[in-house]
Amino acid sequence: MTDNKNNMSKSYILFQVFKYTIYGILFYDLYLFFIDNLQTSETIFAGDVGLVDYLTVFSDSIDSAAWLLLVIIFELETFIMSDEKLLGFTQWILFFAKAICYFFILYAFYGFVDKLSVLLHTTAFKIDDVCQLVNSQYSYLVSLDDYQPINNTVCKLLNNQPLVQINGSNIIATQQALIEAQRLAWVDIINSADWILVVIILEVDVYLQLRGKLTGKIRKISTMIKPPLYGILFIDAIYWGIKGGPIDFWDAFLWLAAFFFIEMNIFEWHNETESERDTMPNESN
After folding, report:
1. What pTM did the predictor assign?
2. Can you tell me the mean pLDDT for 50-70?
3. With pLDDT > 90 as the criterion, what percentage of the chain qualifies?
4. How far, in Å, CA of 140 to CA of 151, rounded?
5. Per-residue pLDDT averaged across 71-100, rounded?
6. Is the pLDDT of residue 43 over 70?
7. How far apart are CA 217 and CA 163, in angstroms?
8. Is residue 42 in a domain?
9. How does DSSP assign 154-195, residue by residue?
10. Which domain holds residue 129?
């Protein structure tokens, strides 16, 4: 934990306000993802569905909730709580909470993989006139997680185009829309795997920093590995901004900002520990 919270300068206060504003927006962002996943579930499911199906569709919400709790825990570890309080019983509570987060994060990763698998399993859809599907249970794929009912305007656009149907659903799509959705699904998988690698490194950083071992080559290696990983996440955000929905781009930006704050916490925590270590011989004299 850092001790800079005792320094109540104006710039410090503004920085903290900005940081916790970002965290607050992430809570609202989680709500938006839940509403979006709920609407998707009402469209995509046909017939009896199980728990696994719901977990797959709500993978975005589950993933965001787990990551948000993880950010809060990292904030406690790297900024709010003292080093002494992070040991003993408190350490085990945080460990248990993190274990829950990682379980759902990994399950969400599975959900992203399964979502791509669904999009990869399609069959050719043949019909003389798509307008026959107006006011039916059929819908069409606009983009990843974006399914719309077929109306009189849409059916005319879909006519005379090669269509496919997602197996086990009442969803049809054009080849182009399907390809774009598959690409976005791949980006989801890459993004999720990248974040998992980032957080593993952060866990190692916090563990070593708490024990005064985040020094020398270890810290240098950690510093060298992270930029490429964050760079991939930034590229993912740009791709979502171009091909996906605005909420996806906004969400990616918020998470990058949130973990920037965690990185800053660790940076300040490390510098303060090193400063205290440098002054110890003088104090002993």
Report:
1. 0.82
2. 80
3. 52
4. 10
5. 88
6. no
7. 56
8. yes
9. HHHHHTTS-EEEETTSSEEEEHHHHHHHHHHHHHHHHHHHHH
10. 4-279
